[in-house]
Amino acid sequence: MAQIKLIPYKIEETVDTASEIPEGIAMIKASEKWEKGYRGNGSVVAVIDTGCDQTHPDLEDRIIGGKNFTTENYGLPYDFSDENGHGTHVAGTIAANLNGEGVVGVAPEAKLLILKAFDKNGNGKLETIIQSIQYAMQWRGSQNERVRVISMSCGTTQNDKRLHQVIRQAVQNNILIVCAAGNNGGDGEESTNERNYPGYFKEVLQVGGAVDNNGRLAAFSNTNDEIDLVAPGVKIKSTYLGNKYALMSGTSMATPHVTGAAAVIIEQMELAFNRRLTEPEIYAQLVKSTIPLKYSKRMEGNGLIMLGERAFSPAQKESSLQGKVYIIPEASL
């Protein structure tokens, strides 16, 4: 059966405690939305990953449900605990609680549907990814909630027709799918065309690059002609196994920033329009919420996701233009 893996990432450091807004979330100015009352309330995000540590205090009450599609945890369908840490880290960046303790996610009042499709080594099967997406489409909460966004930080070079078909179905059901582009761009060349699926499918929102806190694009970030936007992805602090926190780097870390931003924007725009947004409308609002970093479209797409009304300071803008790449060693799984 065809295989699919997590996008490679690097664990920079683990720490026991934290009490802060992570730098990536501060960088995209998510707090400006929180101050106006927009925190992702009402949005359900499906996270297709390695599961999640449900006992982490920063994720208390954020998880609305889940399912295990792997043979781990004895194959028990509703034991979606995390044996790797990647899924827990992604979940925290999306929706960790805003309570003055630990870390906070981009959309601290969004709900998470945890779909465990990868094992402790980051390995998965295309069939389980397809099943996870189908489950997300069909899932209904106790108050008839539906999944609005799917987050996936995984990739394969195989252009699988079945995977493409189920993604099209999800998008037709007005679910925004946010995918990492991948970390195969080690040469830093913008002319290369590194294709990872599902990120390269036209129907998804592809997060093309991980940027550091000065807006410099990491050299490992894939470049291609389907990049939609970029987000913070270098030394991102978020929730980790054992009630700890970890700093990680990779496009896997950039993707949940965009996923969380989508949840916040859905809440804000649906209140403004007094109706449910379609998937193309959610995509359009995210594209509007970007600022250019002066790279090519193949590297940054529409630019850096930015939830605040104020962009970089002049000093930050200047530093973002100094040097094309920021090199982080890539870890293999």
Automatic annotation (TrEMBL):
Residues 40-302 form the Peptidase S8/S53 domain. GO terms for molecular function: serine-type endopeptidase activity. It holds the Pfam family Peptidase_S8. One of its GO terms (biological process) is proteolysis. It comes from the Bacteria. Keywords: Hydrolase, Protease, Serine protease. The active site is at residues 49, 86, 252. The keyword Metal-binding does not apply. CDD domains: Peptidases_S8_Subtilisin_subset (cd07477). Belongs to the peptidase S8 family. This is Intracellular serine protease.
